[in-house]
């Protein structure tokens, strides 16, 4: 009896909680409980959780408080906006913590309880908040090896500590300790920005790391991007010649008084055991010179030197805007190999970016040398030629005695294999752990299908992103390059936004794009620009200025990136306009359709070489179009009119210069047709035949692509848009090169720079440019998510507020599914073919609406959860369109069966 009552009660509770609406996942400026925000108007986002279908928010209320009282009471505000709501309370104060909560009302007349509290803390908003001084080594550095520098300071805190925040940054890369313990889990800090204009500081809550009494703070600073070798020809010291540190611990005592511990002339400095460290070349650590306990109390720093103070202004300091680089997955070696030439090699099974933590026991002075490589050559030997000048070597000198553990600090390697030289004793794989390093982006997307090779391709795309989203989007992580190539980043940006949360990552980097934009509007080829002012303005590279902000707006619905980047977008378009004659932009240097595939012995009169100025005109038009879109979103009617008129002229000039009256392009290549069609360069009446020519071209290469960096991202989209999904699928499934699956068949675990990085006979493409971890061609991921599975957002409800689910069932796949963590919650869709039916499962998050395209011609063929869709009140049949029945739905989980 008792039991029945209990379970009935439980059921009732469950029912009540289902009927209930909840709010969760509170974000401030896209972070969970961030500290050190640098904006005066942070934005709040939250998610609604509701089991009931069609749940929409109708109103919300936010309360923001400090320990001194209320900072903002929004009152009840009508509307369904639950993402990026601007703070509108009393002005926020530097170094202050705020808590906030929110409750919502829904369209079923329900109110949620108040959410759990979230918090945010403001950073140092004014330069006057910095009491610290920049310090540099107080001795003459070894200018050849440039060892890392240790900075140290002992200080006493007299009273009981209520809270303490460490604000810190460096000229170079730093790691910091308090009382002998590492502070935080960020690596390669302060990250890479255009330092002269924007240098990020980090903040750490160190309340629990400090003692009432004596304390020690110690920081190690190495070359990093600041003054290390970057780009080529021994190019170094790009931002300065000397390493420096700036640190300030703001302490609040329980009695309400405050104190700041700062870098000043009381600090000491000396050389560290990191004898040399370079991003490209790796790190040498001599454990015999390690200063045991140097960052803790009791260490005698009598032999250390003082520091030099700098009188720098703090104008370039900004709070950190993206997720820091952190450690992620770890790998154990899957194989220990002795290569034909006798090298001792460990295989970690995955091409990754990070380093190896090594344990060793030996004699003082034993010198272990570890080299890194992505691939073994045809004979099975360790292959490093493609690293070019990058030495990518870790050298560890043992102090001897007990087992020692080593890992580098201010470098990273792109590798799958390591070669060991002089390792003392037996090589036991347990003593080697590869650990990945990348920006701490939240994983947001999954994709899976019935084809194992395509699933491996997805794996490779995601690993290409992991390895190359290392504070800036790098082209590659292994050779002497690792730069923020703009073309690669724009090509991959939409795919990137599916796999991981990249809004903060790109927000920050796009500000560097704007910061480094040249006075005439040109965007440098790499950002941060380390190639100098002469390198910029290439079509498809410089268009990063318009393409990424727009892609981020679509992916996250965040207007702010458009507002922030608008002047930069305009300046880039103005540059192209200035360089054009009669609206034709046909001057200057361009990379063109970089690394397109050029068949060796192609005597058919075809060519995969696309006229660079034809490409430039297409990207020009696209950038103008994105500016029109943006001016609409930002309500800038005058600009909209100006750019609309410009676009017409740019397209007319294109037609006049590059298209015959019957619609043939002067370059008959795949990329030419792809760009002309994707960017709507041709009038409606010429599009069909152009798509036919594209399809024919693909077939003429035995259904292979020939596109490079610029054509590839749009190729399958264009084919699908013009009714050639079957060809898009054939390209996706093509296994001989050039194709996406060719590298997969060759055992790739990341995306390659070139379609044929390794030839079928296992020989390599030219080592001068042959990275095996280069994400650009991974841009096919966008097609897999948006067309194959069909997860997309409408432009009028960006950020998946208004969702389109439009799968393309085909390619012989028996299933494909994907999920995406949107701001609103989980969006997912998957299809599965069975003998005479298609099953489709879709999940739409609360507070969004969706149009689901069900692949059939009549609604009578469709049931949802066993009932004919036409009889359901929570699904609206909205008509048919080219082989689909359109259903309008709200949030909820849907299970469709479609009779064939
Ligand atoms: C990089 C590319 C980049 C290209 C520009 C290469 O060295 O690795 O990915 O876009 O140069 O042409």
Low-confidence parts lasting 5 or more residues at pLDDT below 50? Answer: 12-18
**What structural class do helix, strand and pairing data support?**
alpha+beta
CATH level-1 class of the largest domain:
Mainly Alpha
What is the number of domains? 5
Rounded mean pLDDT is 96
Counting DSSP H or I runs of 4 or more residues, the number of helices is: 15
Say how many strands there are.
46
Query: Remind me, CATH topology of the largest domain?
Result: Glycosyltransferase
The 3D shape can be described as globular
Unique bound compounds? beta-D-glucopyranose
Percentage of residues in DSSP E strands:
25-35%
- CATH hierarchy: architecture of the largest domain: Alpha/alpha barrel
Helix content: 10-25%
Report the biggest beta sheet as strand number plus sense, adding barrel if it closes.
10 strands, mixed
What is the gyration radius calculated from CA atoms?
A: 29 Å
Measured between the Cα atoms of the first and last residue, the distance is 51 Å
């Amino acid at each position: 009896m008792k039991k029945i009552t209990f379970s009935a009660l439980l059921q009732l509770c469950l029912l009540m909680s289902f009927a209930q609406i909840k709010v969760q996942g509170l974000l401030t400026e896209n972070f969970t409980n961030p500290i050190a925000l640098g904006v005066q108007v942070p934005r709040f986002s939250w998610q609604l959780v509701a089991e009931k279908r069609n749940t929409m928010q109708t109103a919300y209320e936010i309360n923001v408080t400090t320990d001194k009282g209320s900072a903002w009471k929004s009152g009840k505000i009508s509307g369904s906006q639950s993402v990026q709501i601007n703070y509108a309370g009393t002005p926020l104060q530097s170094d202050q913590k705020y808590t906030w909560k929110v409750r919502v009302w829904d369209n079923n007349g329900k109110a949620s309880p108040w959410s759990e509290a979230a918090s945010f803390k403001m950073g140092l908003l004014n330069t006057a908040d910095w009491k610290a001084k920049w310090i540099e080594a107080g001795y003459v550095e070894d200018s050849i090896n440039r060892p890392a520098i240790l900075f140290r300071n002992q200080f006493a805190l007299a009273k009981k500590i209520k809270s303490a925040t460490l604000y810190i940054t460096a000229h170079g890369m730093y790691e910091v300790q308090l009382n002998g313990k590492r502070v935080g889990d960020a690596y390669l800090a302060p990250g890479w920005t255009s330092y002269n204009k924007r240098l990020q500081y980090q903040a750490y809550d160190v309340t629990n790391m400090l003692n009432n009494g004596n304390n020690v703070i110690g920081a190690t600073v190495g070359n990093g991007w600041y003054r290390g070798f970057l780009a080529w020809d021994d190019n170094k010291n790009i931002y300065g010649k000397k390493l420096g540190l700036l640190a300030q611990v703001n302490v609040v005592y329980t009695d309400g008084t405050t104190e700041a511990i700062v870098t000043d002339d009381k600090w000491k400095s000396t050389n560290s055991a990191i004898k040399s460290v370079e991003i490209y070349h790796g790190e040498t650590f001599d454990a015999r010179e390690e200063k045991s306990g140097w960052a803790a109390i009791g260490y005698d720093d009598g032999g250390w030197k003082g520091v030099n103070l700098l009188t720098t202004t703090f104008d370039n300091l900004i709070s950190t805007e993206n997720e820091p680089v952190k450690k992620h997955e770890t790998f154990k070696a899957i194989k220990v190999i002795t290569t034909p030439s006798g090298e001792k090699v460990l295989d970690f099974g995955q091409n990754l970016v990070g380093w190896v933590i090594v344990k060793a026991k030996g004699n003082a002075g034993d010198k272990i040398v570890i080299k890194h490589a992505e691939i073994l050559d045809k004979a099975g030997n360790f292959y490093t030629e493609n690293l070019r000048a990058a030495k990518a070597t870790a050298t560890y000198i043992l102090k001897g005695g007990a087992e020692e553990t080593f890992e580098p600090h201010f470098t990273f390697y792109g590798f799958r294999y390591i070669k060991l030289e002089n390792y003392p004793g037996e090589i036991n794989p347990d003593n080697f752990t590869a650990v990945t390093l990348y920006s701490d982006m939240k994983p947001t997307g999954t994709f899976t299908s019935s084809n194992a090779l395509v699933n491996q391709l997805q794996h490779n795309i995601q690993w290409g992103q992991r390895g190359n989203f290392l504070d800036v989007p790098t082209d590659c992580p292994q050779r002497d390059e690792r730069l923020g190539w703009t073309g690669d980043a724009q090509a991959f940006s939409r795919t990137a936004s599916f796999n991981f949360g990249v809004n903060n990552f790109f927000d920050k980097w796009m500000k560097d794009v704007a910061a480094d934009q040249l006075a005439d509007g040109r965007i440098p080829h790499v950002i941060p620009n380390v190639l100098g002012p002469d390198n910029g303005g290439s079509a498809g590279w410089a268009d990063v200025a318009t393409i990424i902000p727009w892609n981020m707006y679509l992916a996250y619905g965040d207007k702010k990136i458009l507002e922030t980047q608008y002047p930069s977008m305009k300046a880039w378009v103005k540059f192209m306009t200035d360089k054009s004659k009669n609206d034709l932009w046909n001057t200057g240097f361009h990379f063109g359709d970089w690394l397109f595939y050029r068949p060796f012995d192609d005597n058919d009169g075809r060519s995969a070489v696309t006229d660079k100025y034809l490409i430039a005109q297409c990207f020009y038009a696209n950038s103008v179009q994105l500016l029109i879109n943006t001016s609409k979103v930002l309500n800038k009617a005058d600009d909209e009119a100006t750019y609309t008129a410009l676009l017409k002229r740019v397209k007319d000039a294109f037609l006049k210069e590059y298209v015959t009256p019957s619609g043939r392009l002067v370059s008959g290549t795949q990329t030419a047709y792809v760009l002309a069609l994707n960017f709507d360069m041709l009038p409606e009446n010429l599009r069909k035949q152009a798509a036919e020519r594209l399809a024919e071209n693909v077939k003429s290469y035995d259904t292979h692509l020939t596109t490079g960096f610029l054509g590839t991202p749009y190729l399958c989209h264009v084919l699908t848009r013009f009714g050639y999904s079957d060809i898009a699928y054939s390209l996706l499934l093509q296994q001989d090169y050039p194709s996406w699956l060719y590298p997969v068949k060759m055992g790739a675990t990341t995306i390659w720079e070139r379609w044929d990085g390794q030839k079928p006979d296992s020989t390599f493409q030219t080592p001068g440019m042959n990275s095996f971890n280069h994400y650009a061609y991974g841009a096919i991921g966008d097609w897999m998510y948006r067309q194959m599975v069909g997860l997309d957002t409408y432009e009028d409800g960006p950020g998946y507020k208004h969702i389109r689910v439009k799968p393309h069932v085909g390619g012989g796949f028996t299933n494909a599914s994907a999920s995406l963590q949107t701001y609103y919650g989980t969006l997912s869709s998957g299809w599965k073919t069975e003998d005479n039916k298609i099953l489709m499962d879709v999940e739409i998050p609360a507070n969004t609406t969706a149009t689901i395209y069900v692949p059939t011609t009549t609604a009578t063929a469709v049931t949802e959860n066993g009932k004919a869709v036409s009889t359901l009140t929570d699904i609206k049949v909205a008509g048919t369109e080219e082989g689909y029945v359109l259903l309008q739905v709200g949030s909820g989980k849907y299970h469709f069966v479609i009779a064939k």
